[in-house]
Specification:
Structural class: alpha/beta
Distance between the termini: 48 Å
Helix content: 40-55%
Strand content: 5-15%
Bound molecules: pyridoxal-5'-phosphate
Number of strands: 12
Strand order of the largest sheet: 2-8-7-6-5-3-4
CATH architecture of the largest domain: 3-Layer(aba) Sandwich
CATH superfamily of the largest domain: Type I PLP-dependent aspartate aminotransferase-like (Major domain)
Number of domains: 2
Shape: globular
Largest sheet: 7 strands, mixed
Radius of gyration: 21 Å
CATH class of the largest domain: Alpha Beta
CATH topology of the largest domain: Aspartate Aminotransferase, domain 2
């Protein structure tokens, strides 16, 4: 009945984890849901005013397929400030979230059978999109190296069919931030072996240690002609539902993306575009500071709760808003009558015994991991982690 292509993907595991939490809550249990890939927060005032003004002005029509020129110019300016290089509007496409930016990139760069190196654990959509585009995801393990890929492991995974490498820092799900040595190493490899770099920095605003996040193109300008920068307002401005993100890269790629997007979604929502533009033009950075300090507080609360775990190392959580637990020490141990074998089983035990919803590492290609989001209200986080620690420490 359906196309063969549908066998290549299933609904995202994070969405499934959220659905399981909702189903458990529906059955009357009080569930603390730590699955969300988004931050609990009010709208930024600049976004609210920008959107309301656009509605008051009666804005209702299509814009340029890849976004209003004023917005692309403002984004080019932002990227220029961020990278220390000059970027122009024709090197930027506005998309319906970073997800569409990445999908566009896969569709315009990959030929059938082309391989894309994706460090694991990985955000589940990266390999799914590569498969949909006819490519082949190739994974490189990072767990033994603090969830940062080793350049030599990436080099060893390159074949004649390798077309691109995904660099997602700060990383979802692990929260790892790649240092400049790793970035330069990957960049040089990409130049040597003629690869594209898909640089996803959606969590770039959330770094919780001194080890600052740097865009790969600033530390290795020679890599710019083969790098696509992917970013979004979803995380940095807590705007997941507004679906607004962007892709920046060589203008030939951007014009191919424009042609593709003209046959898929057309322009991203016009009100969201106006709101984003108003924010870029008028923000004094206070909303971003507020989000960062909310997350820094939540991270501290979370880390002190998790420091009482007995069999699981406390995560570093250097970037983003996730705690990623290495639960390998619990696998095969008993919990009451259950004998968990995978992170999926642990997630199930946590949901049923602690009333806490987490995302299993299997969603991210890692059978020994567990992702907890701390972008939730502080009280909820505290209760959730206290319950979680109690159950995880009760493993025999
Ligand atoms: N890239 C990464 C690493 C993400 O974690 C996400 C969302 O979870 C996205 C991209 C997509 O974000 P958006 O909401 O902008 O589509």
């Amino acid at each position: 009945m359906l196309a063969e292509r549908t066998a290549l993907f299933k609904s995202s595991g994070t969405a499934a984890a959220r659905a399981a939490a909702e189903a458990a809550a529906g059955s009357g249990k009080e569930i603390i849901d730590l699955t969300a890939g988004e931050i609990w927060s009010d709208l930024a005032p600049t976004i609210r005013v920008g959107a309301l003004n656009a509605i008051r002005r009666g804005i209702n029509r299509y814009t340029d397929t890849i976004g209003m020129i004023e917005l692309r110019e403002a984004l080019a300016q932002k990227i220029s400030g961020h990278t220390g290089q000059v970027w122009r509007a024709d090197e930027v496409a506005v998309t319906c979230g970073a997800k569409q930016a990445l999908f566009n990139a896969a569709m315009v760069l990959l030929n059938p059978g082309d391989e894309v190196i994706i460090p694991a654990p990985y955000w589940t959509t990266f390999p799914a999109q590569v498969l949909i585009a006819g490519g082949k995801p190739v994974h490189v393990e990072t767990r033994a190296n603090g969830y940062v890929p080793r350049v030599e492991d990436i080099a060893a995974a390159i074949t004649d069919r390798t077309r691109a490498v995904v660099v997602n820092t700060p990383n979802n799900p692990t929260g790892a931030v790649y240092g400049s040595e790793t970035l330069v190493g990957i960049g040089k490899l990409a130049i040597e072996r003629d690869l594209w770099i898909i640089f996803d920095e959606c969590y770039g605003d959330f770094i919780h240690v001194d080890d600052a996040h740097c865009p790969i193109v600033s530390i290795l300008p020679e890599a710019r002609s083969r790098t696509l920068i992917v970013n979004s307002f979803s995380k940095s401005l807590a705007l997941t539902g507004w679906r607004i993100g962007y892709l920046a890269g060589p203008k030939e790629v951007i014009s191919a993306v424009k042609a593709l997007q003209s046959h898929t979604t057309s322009n991203p929502n016009v009100i969201a575009q106006h709101a984003a533009l108003a924010h870029l033009l008028n923000s004094d950075g206070s909303y971003e500071r507020h989000l960062r300090s909310h997350l820094a507080g939540a991270r501290q609360t979370g880390l002190s709760a998790l420091s009482t775990l007995t069999r699981i190392p406390v995560p570093k959580a250097t970037g983003g808003f996730y705690f990623y637990l290495d639960v390998s020490g619990l696998l095969r141990l008993r919990f009451g009558n259950d004998e968990p074998m995978t992170a999926d089983d642990i997630v199930h035990v946590l949901l049923t015994r602690a009333g806490v919803a987490a995302v299993s590492g299997t969603t991210f290609g890692d059978p020994a991991g567990l992702r907890l989001s701390y972008g939730v209200p502080p009280k909820k986080l505290e209760i959730g982690l206290t319950r979680l620690v109690e159950v995880l420490n009760a493993w025999e």
